[in-house]
Amino acid sequence: MFAVERIPPVAKAARDVLVDLYFEHGYDEAKEEAKRDEENEDCLVRVYLGEREADTTVSYNRNESTLRNFPMRLDRWEDAVGRDGVRVLARQMAVGMAVLHWRAKVDGMDVEFVLGGPSPTTRQPPVVRGYDELTRGPRRVIPIIGSTPTAQKAVEMWILDFDKASPVGLTENDVKKRLVPAFLGNDPYYPLPKKGEEELWGLWRETYLRASEVVLGEAQGEVNDFGAHRLSRVFVEEVERRVRENEEWDAEKEIVFE
To answer: For the CA atoms of 199, 201, 202, 203, what is the dihedral angle to 10 degrees?
Structure first.
């Protein structure tokens, strides 16, 4: 059973910290105006763990102008919540992906992982059995930007935008031709097995495999019929293979001029 509800925005105290850090450096009046701007009340923070600011074509110190769909790449998360906080975000994202793949059975094409406010529904069951152990922390305790208790008000990770997601079957063919392309073709939400990011990918990978085992274990009939228990490992290994091939690809060697 799945519930659909409106995603509450990030709390005002955290929004104010974002403005102080990333808006109009040196212009206090402009920052105060941004904090009062009603449009900035609709603030969701995109959790980009697969890209650093240096990987983009824009400067890390660029000035932001809106809190709507606010981009937070890995550098910013490390500065804001520390490496331990990034690990919590990565684990939560991995559990969410396992649930998408093996319970909802959709490819996750173009979905978004964002931080928003806590759900107004106070009694929600965990998304998978043993959730707190898998994520190494309570569901509603994600560190957020700011050092004050108010700025660290509870936030939650949400998944949205399923308009391009499609159903998939529990087959190796669908894993390789549907799940992996959707994963690698999305915006840079997910950690990847790239050089320099092996530790974060390893943590994401381990959590995804463990969560997948739990989810697939709840569907014993399908696991027995299709050998689905091995598909999560097929998924991560195929992701690793394609990323490795991309890193090893040499344009000068591959392009031949006649």
So the answer is: 90
Cα torsion 159, 15, 187, 82: sign: negative
What integer pLDDT is reported at residue 188 of this predicted model? 95
**C-alpha dist (Å) from residue 93 to 5, 131, 143:** 19, 12, 14
User: How far apart are alpha carbons 153 and 155 in whole angstroms?
Assistant: 6
- Most confident region among 19-33, 66-80, 93-107 by mean pLDDT: 93-107
Res. 244: pLDDT tops 80? yes
How far is residue 54 CA from its own chain's centroid?
19
Q: What is the CA radius of gyration of the chain?
A: 20
| C-alpha atoms less than 13 angstroms from C-alpha of 170 in its C-beta half-sphere | 21
The tokens describing 92, both together, are: 């939560």
Alpha helices for 124-169 (secondary structure H): 131-135
Do 42 and 68 meet the contact criterion of CB atoms below 8 Å apart?
Answer: yes
- Examine the pLDDT at 53 and tell me if it is beyond 80: yes
**Residue type, position 235, single letter:** F
Q: Which of 39, 43, 95, 92 is nearest to 72 (CA)?
A: 43
